[in-house]
């Protein structure tokens, strides 16, 4: 079987791909470019294609089908950037990957601690030798009520790790997990909004979740609430968040992902003028900590992403049960 990898990074992913090719005995091609109408012909002659978080709409999927591609995987947990319905309508199978949840869970808690102790403001002051205490008083995570929206693999790991801090934990998910009740209580979203000092998001980017944190939701939250997002940018209405940060309703936002980040993250855009005014506004605020969608990024996770992408594609070809297959809606 022949696999083609788009947007493959030569400074980390290639090592794991070489190991997989030797272990599972397949041929591969690659490019560092993201798939586009101009480079889809690179996939000609390959049965399977691997991408990262870049859009694949009907036109590009149709072209891949014409080129002989049968299977597509994204090296990410989320797959909302692929038109899955159209892919299956033309006979393409789609997979995603899973990876160790500890990477994002640990990063999330790090973001909470950074927010609680106002670290960006402290460090910005220190660089200009402002060592005063004014405006830098923090809060203790142990004395906080933390609302966890979404208790899938990552959200559940966040809950388990938070339990060691002694904080009160509230949880919400469509599918409740009995084993987590020892750490906290499942409640409705409105209760989380009203009672939480810190709210962290761990839900997928489904249509039903679009802008789940909007002005209406924010209005019901505690004054000075901390919002952490290491999931998907579309979960938060950025305009509403900026207004709430300016008014003080939201005390701090720690964001690893934001709306309209396509074409920015994972690329070197230094020296470019970026057409993303919301990001510029967020960066200007001392009560915002912004990182470029890299909560997942550890050695173990990158290994998992490459390995599971290969397994998912090879399972399709073998016609065996595929735990990474994106099921038809």
Describe this protein's structure.
This protein has 329 residues and is an alpha/beta fold. It folds into 2 domains: 2-99 and 298-318, 3-Layer(aba) Sandwich (Rossmann fold), CATH 3.40.50; 102-290, NAD(P)-binding Rossmann-like Domain (Rossmann fold). Helix content is 33%, strand content 15%. The protein has helices at 13-24, 58-66, 84-89, 102-116, 119-127, 153-162, 189-195, 215-219, 238-247, 277-283, 299-318, and strands at residues 2-5, 27-30, 48-51, 71-74, 93-95, 145-149, 168-172, 185-186, 198-201, 225-229, 250-255, 288-290. The protein has a 7-stranded parallel sheet, sandwiched between helices. A 5-stranded parallel sheet has the order 2-1-3-4-5. Helix 9 links the parallel strand 10 and strand 11. The longest helix is centred in the C-terminal third of the chain and has 20 residues, at 299-318.
């Amino acid at each position: 079987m022949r696999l083609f990898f788009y947007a493959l990074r030569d400074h980390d992913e290639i090592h794991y791909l070489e190991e997989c090719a030797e272990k599972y005995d397949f041929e591969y091609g690659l490019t560092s470019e993201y798939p586009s109408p101009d480079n889809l012909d690179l996939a000609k002659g390959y049965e399977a294609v691997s991408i990262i978080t870049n859009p694949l709409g009907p036109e590009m999927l149709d072209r891949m089908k014409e080129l002989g591609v049968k299977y597509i995987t994204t090296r990410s947990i989320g797959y909302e950037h692929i038109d899955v319905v159209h892919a299956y309508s033309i006979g393409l199978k789609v997979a995603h990957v899973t990876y160790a949840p500890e990477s994002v869970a640990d990063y999330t808690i790090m973001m909470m601690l950074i927010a609680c102790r106002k670290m960006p403001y402290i460090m910005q002051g220190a660089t200009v030798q402002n060592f005063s205490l004014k405006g830098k008083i923090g809060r203790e995570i142990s004395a906080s009520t933390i609302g966890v929206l979404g208790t899938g693999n990552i959200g559940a790991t966040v809950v388990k790790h938070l339990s060691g801090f002694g904080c009160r934990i509230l949880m919400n998910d469509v599918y409740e997990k009995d084993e987590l009740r020892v750490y906290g209580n499942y409640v409705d979203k409105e209760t989380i909004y009203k009672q939480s000092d810190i709210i962290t998001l761990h839900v997928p980017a489904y249509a039903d979740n679009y802008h789940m944190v909007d002005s209406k939701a924010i209005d019901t939250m505690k004054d000075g609430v901390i919002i952490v997002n290491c999931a998907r940018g579309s979960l938060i209405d950025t305009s509403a968040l900026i207004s709430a940060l300016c008014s003080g309703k939201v005390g701090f936002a720690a964001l690893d992902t934001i709306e309209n980040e396509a074409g920015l993250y994972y690329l070197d855009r230094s020296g470019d003028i970026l057409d993303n005014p919301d990001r510029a506004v967020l960066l200007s605020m001392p009560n915002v900590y912004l990182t470029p969608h890299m909560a997942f990024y550890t050695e173990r996770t990158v290994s998992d992403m490459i390995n599971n992408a290969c397994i998912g594609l090879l399972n399709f070809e073998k016609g065996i049960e595929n735990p990474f297959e994106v099921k038809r809606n």
